Amino acid sequence: MTLPFQTDTQAISLTPDGPTIPALGVGTWAWGDAFFWSYGKDYTEADLLAAFQASVAAGVNFFDTAEVYGLGESERLIGRFLQQVDQPVTIATKYFPLPWRWSPQAVADTLTASLDRLQLDGVELYQVHWPLDFFLGQKDLMNALANEVKQGRVKAVGVSNYSAKQMHEAHGYLADRGIPLAVNQVQYSLLHRKLETNGVLDMARQLDVKILAYSPLAQGLLTGKYAASESSKPEGARQLNPRFSQAGLTKIELVLQTLRAIATAHDKTPAQVALNWLICIGNVIPIPGAKNASQATQNAGALGWSMSADEHEQLARVTQAWC
User: Among the four 66, 108, 202, 240, which has the fewest Cβ within 10 Å?
Assistant: First the structure.
């Protein structure tokens, strides 16, 4: 498919009357997660506080978390960090509809627990983490979320990992309550472009639903930090991912070469180019992780400039295999 190309996207409204956020956020899956991301080994709470402060200072004041990240630790960390800044910060979190949560009251109770950990009275965006509706159907689930908007604890409603059909269904149920569906959070990067061919991106445009792109740097593959010619390996469970093997890294070498060339032309880094590629699509908000101030500052450098349309198309062409 032919992707749109925009050069002036710096901020995006989640809904027509809802909060406006920068065209780049911070994903906090790694904040407090000791299994996959090895929290407490190669980075600490002090590092994450520095990342939080550096992001806010750079104007990237949108943070996406979830109750399951670090089993609540991500929310607790953000709650503590919020007490140490005086600038406005936008928070999104998520409800995980596990099988035993079969009542609308479970949604309200889960939100209450998240707000307690975040030390907040409400959040700008509340999302359904996965489209699991074993006992609580989508209609009841969306109505429970709509109730929270009406009560003022949530300003906008989103979903995550929803297919085009599921997104359309959720949108319809919310529309019946006069509430727009704000976002669908899905994996999207130069190395994971499935939503361009499975109908999700087209449906999002049709419904005016924003895409929150998680893993926009492919868990570090697009930063240029890892190369087939080097022996460096990521920490944590990523070591088991075959994409970080020599064969996997060899497969993406042309992508990395293209990123480096464009980065050099704009005095940027490969990671900033990879993020800017998503931002230039419009209606897409990448939420890369940041485990320290340096990473946060680098991510923020994806804003305030734009690659050319030809460069955008070149990257789309060399990553066509990942559509």
Answer: 240
